Amino acid sequence: MHFWTESGFGYPIINSNNKSEILEFISEHWKDYDASFDQDEFDALIQRGELDEIEEYIDEPVSWLIADVINDTEGLTVFNGFSASEETGEYLGIDPCYSWTMTEADKVLTKQRATELLKKYGEMLGVLDEPLYFEIEYIG
């Protein structure tokens, strides 16, 4: 058995009150993420509104798709989705990384700008929490 911890700056992304906002965000942005998805099939998944089915179709957590869309839109690479277990849920956050893997836009990103971006996308996703530092424990 393995144990490890990841940390970041962000917030839990999926709660019982924001499913419709997340589905709307995915519906509007999924082509930016991967245009190879079958449009009719993906639209049907959105209509059914089952996030688990969407995750199975894209073969990764929804938070990863959302983070990739934000990175592409903002010209960054530091946003990441975190998903350890059903108990911890999924988080959207900024993942600390090595300076040599960062773009110039990543290197000049301040905490203030990161907070603004998290709030901007949080509003779109129905997350009204203030960004916070978090640690997620993985057991596998």
Produce the secondary structure layout.
Layout: E1 3-12, H1 19-33, H2 39-48, H3 51-58, H4 62-74, E2 79-83, E3 90-94, H5 104-107, H6 111-125, E4 132-139
Antiparallel strand pairs: 1-3, 1-4, 2-3
Helix pairs in contact: 1-4
Search tags:
4-stranded antiparallel beta sheet, alpha+beta, globular
Explained architecture:
The chain is an alpha+beta fold. The protein has one domain (3-139). Helices cover 46% and strands 20% of the residues. It has helices at residues 19-33, 39-48, 51-58, 62-74, 104-107, 111-125; strands spanning 3-12, 79-83, 90-94, 132-139. The protein has a 4-stranded antiparallel sheet with strand order 2-3-1-4. Strand 2 (79-83) and strand 3 form a beta hairpin. The chain is globular, with a radius of gyration of 15 Å. The N and C termini lie close together (6 Å).
